[in-house]
Design a protein that fits this description.
280 residues; alpha/beta; Rossmann fold; ProC C-terminal domain-like fold; 2 domains; eight-stranded mixed beta sheet; 12 helices; 8 strands
């Protein structure tokens, strides 16, 4: 079984480790790095004794130790720290070690510039539902990634959701649709609850109704990923739903959604330019 190292155990890397453990992955093949000994102890209590956890507080060389001999390395730190982390571990990577970045705004060429020449690398755009095993994780591979390595990274990431391969140039659109997308659903639930209060519901009831409704709709979409068909099925002619949807569309919902996603793509491009400068 391959050895997988997680550098940083924030929400995404932490979710992937938990997903792997739940799927039966050998815990002895998992390594992780954290900043403090207290964090290491907390994770050990949560994950059990199997995974090897290195704390930088007591082991300054924690990242280097974790990647040595690893088959797959996932970089789970903030985007601004990815380039420095990649440079730090570069001398300790095997030539066939697959390096995966799950940070927004980090292009493959930026990651490659900080790694040894010819290093297999993957860019991944996950989203927050990965924490509950319902994530969407888009991946782009560089030319050095072998079919076996593609299978490995897909297996690992599939532990927390759906994995789709996309072209590097599509990552901005992916960020707008799935990367930032959960926040759109949360905002919808938030506005539904606020409207419910104005219509006479108490705040707790309105929030519970809105949250459960949006979550339930998500489960329906998971079972039948055709939103237009589901919308038509629930929209009776001249009924209450039709009246509400008419208000949405006449209010410019389609145009507003397009503008919001274009703003997301523009900000992603800004981040790409910003972080690419760090690799020079």
């Amino acid at each position: 079984m391959p050895t997988v190292a997680f550098l940083g155990t924030g929400s995404m890397n932490g979710a992937i480790v938990s997903g792997l453990l739940a799927s039966g992955f050998d815990p002895a093949q998992l390594r992780a790095t954290v900043s403090s000994q207290a964090s290491a102890q907390k994770l050990q209590a949560s994950w059990g004794e199997g995974p090897q956890i290195f704390a930088q507080e007591t082991q300054p060389e924690a990242n280097q130790l974790a990647v040595t001999g690893a088959d797959l390395v996932l970089l789970g730190v903030k985007p601004y720290a990815i380039v420095d982390l990649a440079r730090q571990i570069a001398p300790h990577l095997g030539p066939q070690t697959l390096v995966v970045s799950v940070a927004a705004g980090i292009e493959l060429k930026t990651l490659e510039a900080a790694l040894p020449a010819g290093q297999p690398a993957v860019r991944c755009m996950p989203n927050t539902p990965s924490r509950v095993g319902k994530g969407v994780l888009a991946i782009s591979l560089n030319a050095q990634v072998s079919p076996q390595q593609k299978q490995l990274v897909t297996q690992v990431l599939s532990s927390v959701g759906l994995v789709l391969e996309v072209a590097e140039e599509q990552m901005g659109a992916v960020t707008a649709v799935s990367g930032s997308g959960p926040a759109y659903a949360f905002l919808l639930a938030e506005t539904m609850a606020a409207a419910g209060v104005k219509l006479g519901l108490d705040e707790e009831t309105a929030q519970r109704l809105a949250a459960a409704t949006v979550a339930g709709a998500g489960f329906l979409l998971d079972a039948q990923p055709d939103p237009a068909a589901l919308r038509r099925a629930v929209t009776s002619p001249n009924g209450t739903t039709e009246a509400a949807l008419k208000a949405y569309t006449e209010g410019g919902l389609y145009e507003l959604t397009q503008a919001a996603m274009e703003a997301c793509v523009a900000r992603n491009e800004d981040m790409v330019r910003e972080f690419s400068q760090q690799a020079k």
